[in-house]
Amino acid sequence: MQIEEIQRLCSQSKIKWSGHASERIQQRGISREDVINCIMHGEIIEDYPDYWLNPASLIFGYSVNGKIIHVVVGIDNYIHIVTAYYPDKTKFESDMKTRKGR
Q1: Total domain count, the chain
Q2: What range does the domain containing 40 cover?
Q3: What region, left, alpha or beta, does residue 45 occupy, with left being phi > 0 and alpha being psi -120 to 50 degrees?
Q4: Per-residue pLDDT, 24
Q5: For residue 62, is it within any domain?
């Protein structure tokens, strides 16, 4: 999956928010604007070609306030926001892009 394609769909507002994603971002204090900022200025750090929803990717980026966040998106003719979270230092290396143990 190419970040440019995801960004193009995002800029066209072709975004579908799952109920799970909407609930989780609210619980985690992440806004929709944070998710969009992450997508528009971020980079793909993992691909999930066999994800159940559609091919999916993990995007590394920043919230509008400069906090590192991760966003999982599926893609077809729309971006499907699966979830977003602040990465856990116990699961990622100091770059917050590389999973520990890989």
Answers
A1: 1
A2: 3-85
A3: alpha
A4: 94
A5: yes
Q: Which residue in the block uniquely carries the two structure tokens 């928010």?
A: 17
Residue 53 has pLDDT above 70, yes or no: no
Asked if the structure places residue 102 within a domain, the reply is no
- Rounded Cα distance, 19 and 36, in Å: 17
Over residues 18-42, the mean pLDDT reads 96
CB 20 within 8 A of CB 85: no
Which amino acid does the sequence have at 17?
W
- How far is Cα 64 from Cα 21, in angstroms, rounded to an integer? 18
pTM for this one? Answer: 0.93
Count CB atoms within 10 A of the CB of residue 82: 22
Measured over the CA atoms of residue 91, residue 92, residue 98 and residue 102, the dihedral's sign is: negative
The H or E element that residue 69 is part of is: strand 68-75
Q: Does the residue 38 lie in any domain? A: yes
Closest to 78 in 3D by CA, of 14, 3, 11: 14
In a domain, 98, yes or no: no
